[in-house]
TrEMBL record:
PANTHER family: PEPTIDASE C39-LIKE DOMAIN-CONTAINING PROTEIN (PTHR40524:SF1), PEPTIDASE_C39_2 DOMAIN-CONTAINING PROTEIN (PTHR40524). This is Uncharacterized protein. It comes from Sulfuriroseicoccus oceanibius.
Length: 209
């Protein structure tokens, strides 16, 4: 083999190794989509306007912001998004209950884990079975859309820019954009979910029994 040919083969080999290394780095550093997560917009186009006259509960409302949730004993103002989201969903379904009332009833009925996580099945217990929360086996746009069309209220979890999880109720849909009430939005706006996050990580369905 000539010296010139050996040199060309060495250069080609070096280029190949460099390309493989670049691919490996890209695979390791590319943003990952969490398993089971879906885009915060999508599915079929629907025209389901959000009611503007329903309750809009903020977790830091002075009426209950200092109340402690069950289990962890943390204040509602810091970790009360789930309670507010479920209370808004229940109100939309015709069962008026404030976050303060819901939290107190859940505490009385052991509705929280030791870490302060809501035990979803306890919602049915404290509402005398009138409001139930179902936990689906999967997460798809098709199920979200079907739930909205059938009068259910999806409560979804996404990750805020701060890295903390956050729960909000989906109260309507415009085209492929899901509309939400955010327990942290002091302006009490109906917002596009896609303006708040790229992905939905989890969902619970609040239904009227």
């Amino acid at each position: 083999m000539s010296r010139s040919l050996r040199k060309k083969l060495a250069i080609a080999s070096a280029i190949g190794l460099t390309s493989l290394a670049a691919v490996a780095i890209w695979i390791q550093t590319r943003p990952a989509t969490p398993t089971g997560s879906i885009s915060s917009s999508g599915g079929i186009s629907l025209d389901l306007p959000a009611a503007t006259d329903g309750a809009y509960y903020l977790q830091n409302d002075p009426q209950w912001g200092a109340d402690k949730i069950g289990g962890s004993g943390e204040p509602m103002a810091s970790v009360g998004c789930t309670i507010c989201a479920v209370a808004m969903a229940a109100e939309q379904l015709g069962y008026p209950i404030t976050p303060q009332q819901l939290n107190a009833s859940l505490i009385e009925n052991n509705g929280f884990t030791e870490r302060g996580w809501l035990i979803w099945s306890a919602v049915g217990k404290v509402t005398n079975g009138k409001i139930q929360v179902t936990v689906p086996r999967g997460l798809t746009h098709a199920e979200l859309d079907s739930a909205l069309q059938n009068g259910k209220v999806p409560v979804v979890r996404y990750t805020m820019p701060s890295g903390y999880p956050h729960w909000v109720p989906i109260v309507g849909k415009s085209g492929k954009e899901y509309l939400v009430k955010d327990p942290l939005d002091a302006e009490l706006k109906i917002s596009k979910l896609s303006d708040k996050a790229d992905l939905i990580h989890s969902v619970r369905y609040v239904i009227q029994d």
